[in-house]
Design goal:
about 350 residues, alpha+beta, Alpha-D-Glucose-1,6-Bisphosphate, Chain A, domain 4, transmembrane helix, START-like_dom_sf, transmembrane
């Protein structure tokens, strides 16, 4: 009985030790010294810290444990505990936790597997040295990584919808977007993780130089200056977040639009008549992504932008088709009265 309890105690120690390594990394990379170099978006934190977590759990897990427990389940449990702790202590927002969780889970398992491979059939002293190397590597490599600037990548996200309405009706519904209710948008995952819903888009005047004010919930506003105005063909504008109206609590620091890691630069609507009374409407945007893990981060930013654009197009489609149907009914009644 005592041996079983002692074995269970080793499992608890393994998880706690891995949690402490991750928390130490979280606080260290959030300091001003490392934050200026990228902080929690440095590869040393996103990749090497979870690898150190995995190696730590593998080191303290009893060697008699099954291979899957040492390399998968123990690191998984420790990562989930770390992410829960970060949420509980308000160290990170839900958005950031969701973004880093797949990366942490995979790299923690990699770290555990590498540790076991490097230390298999080695004396305990070598195992301790190997664990120390995993734990120190993120902090030793951080000054090296800080010497390299994060790359800037421009990404384009495009959504398309075919609307059963004439092109002039669609045009009138995109230059200005009347207030949107939550029921108009329907449910979406991005609502649940904290992204504000779009509310409306106003326009000061038609033509080049007109300024659209695109507002979202919780005080989020974007100033969109029209620089391409081709009636019933194309509307394009630059986008600048109105930082004066956006509360600091709306977005996490690492996903703030207009921040050093991410920005939305442009938006464009293109219209094309397709068949009798139908219009193809294309909405695409250009974003800047500036992280050391752009291919991975881009998967998330592309999804969020695509979902925002899809919902806006859906609202426009419903409004245009409802207006088109009313116009058709009115025209039909007039013909009947004339006859």
């Amino acid at each position: 009985m005592s041996s079983i309890e002692r074995s269970n105690f080793h499992y608890v120690i393994a998880v706690i030790a891995g949690l402490l390594v991750a928390l130490l990394g979280r606080f260290a990379f959030a300091t001003r010294l490392l934050n200026d170099a990228g902080g929690l978006l440095m590869l040393c934190f996103l990749v090497l810290i979870p690898m150190a977590l995995g190696a730590t759990t593998a080191h303290f897990t009893p060697p008699t444990a099954k291979w899957m427990w040492r390399t998968v389940w123990s690191p998984f449990l420790t990562v989930l505990l770390f992410l829960f702790t970060a949420l509980l202590l308000h160290l990170e927002g839900l958005i950031c936790v969701l973004i880093i969780s797949p990366l942490f889970l995979v790299t923690a398992c990699v770290g555990a597997s590498l540790y076991i491979r490097f230390t298999e059939n080695r004396p305990d002293r070598n195992k301790t040295y190997t664990l120390a190397a995993f734990a120190l590597l993120p902090f030793l490599m951080a000054p090296v990584e800080s010497q390299f600037a994060a790359p800037n990548e421009l990404r384009r996200v495009e959504n398309t919808v075919v609307i059963a309405a004439p092109i002039d009706v669609v045009w009138q519904n995109i230059i200005r977007v009347l207030p949107i209710q939550a029921t108009d948008l329907g449910p979406s995952v991005i609502d649940k993780i904290g992204f504000p819903r779009p509310v409306e888009a106003t326009l000061t005047h038609e033509g080049i130089g007109g300024v659209r004010h695109a507002t979202f919930e919780r005080g989020v506003e974007f100033i969109e200056t029209v620089d391409v105005w081709e009636p019933q063909r194309r509307l394009s504008f630059s986008i600048v977040p109105n930082t004066a109206t956006i509360p600091p609590t709306t977005f996490d620091e690492h996903v703030t639009i207009g921040g050093r890691f991410f920005d939305v630069l442009r938006g464009t609507y293109e219209l094309e008549a397709v068949g009798a009374g139908h219009t193809r409407l294309i909405l695409y945007s250009q974003q800047r992504l500036s992280t050391r893990l752009n291919p991975y981060a881009g998967l998330w930013t592309d999804y969020v932008m695509s979902e925002i654009q899809r919902r806006i197009l859906t609202v426009i489609q419903r409004r245009c088709e409802a207006r088109g149907n009313k116009g058709s009914l009115s025209s039909h009644k007039q013909k009947e009265q004339a006859n």
